[in-house]
Amino acid sequence: MPIELRKTLLHVETTFIEGGRAAPVPLRLVAALAVLRNPWAGRGFVEDLQPEIREIAPILGALLTKMIIETVGSGDDVEAYGKAAVVGLDGEVEHASALIHTLRFGNHYREAVGAKSYLAFTNTRGPANAPVMIPLMDKNDEGRRSHYLTIQCAVPDAPAAGEIVVALGASVGGRPHHRIGDRYQDLKDLGRDVSNPAEV
Q1: Model confidence over 56-96: pLDDT tens digits?
Q2: Which of 2, 5, 34, 180 is most buried per CB count within 10 Å?
Q3: Contact indicator for 106, 61 with CB cutoff of 8 Å
């Protein structure tokens, strides 16, 4: 079943002032979104989602990655990254998950930005104009809290009941004026081994 892509969208947000103070370096957030027909909608309970995952996920991963990189400038410029999917009301959350929780989708982005950490994510169900929430984390350092960010946007006419919105997000920079430290200092303060935080 070939991909039925209705449209793509680009969300770009630049923050110059935060907390009443000018940002030393403006924070730039970018989201690339695709609206496509849900390939499983209207088919009842589909036991095996893999054929559609294999066909559609690589196309989405390549398309959205290209949109991010062209907007940001280069993979090296992406500092934090994440992904999201919102399935329409005729679909299952599993349908949203299927297209983003596969290496066939995410590896396009990871490799393009040279990332080591996992892609933070959300997968939800909702109507048209449902919030698309893309959590971000540093692409190489999961404990770097300055880059714990969330891109929030919406598509006024999507997802329709039989559609899915799939998105990738990126930041250039971290939160302006970040001042809560990082995970590693908390572990030290708690007497935990930074290399093995489960141990006291």
Answers
A1: 999 999 999 999 999 999 999 999 999 999 999 999 999 99
A2: 34
A3: yes
Cα separation, 159 vs 129, in Å, equals 7
Length of the chain: 200
Instruction: Report the distance separating Cα 87 and Cα 101, nearest Å.
Output: 14
Q: Which CATH class is domain 5-189?
A: alpha beta
Tokens 């997000």 -> residue: 169
With DSSP H G I counted as helix, E B as strand and the rest as coil, what are the percentages for the chain, rounded to 5? 30, 35, 35
Cα 46 to Cα 50, 85, 127, 150, 180: the distances in Å are 10, 19, 22, 32, 46
Question: How many CA atoms does the CB half-sphere of 138 hold within 13 Å?
Answer: 13
Tokens matching residue 172 = 């250039």
Stated as kind and residue range, the H or E segment containing 103 is helix 103-113
CB atoms within 10 A of CB 186: 15
161 exposure class (CB count in 10 Å sphere: 0-12, 13-18, 19+): middle
Radius of gyration of the chain (CA): 18
For residues 12 and 169, give the distance between their C-alpha atoms in angstroms, rounded to a whole number. Answer: 10
pLDDT tens-digit profile of 89-120?
Answer: 999 999 999 999 999 999 999 999 999 999 99
* Domain residue spans of the chain: 5-189
Longest dimension (CA), the chain: 54
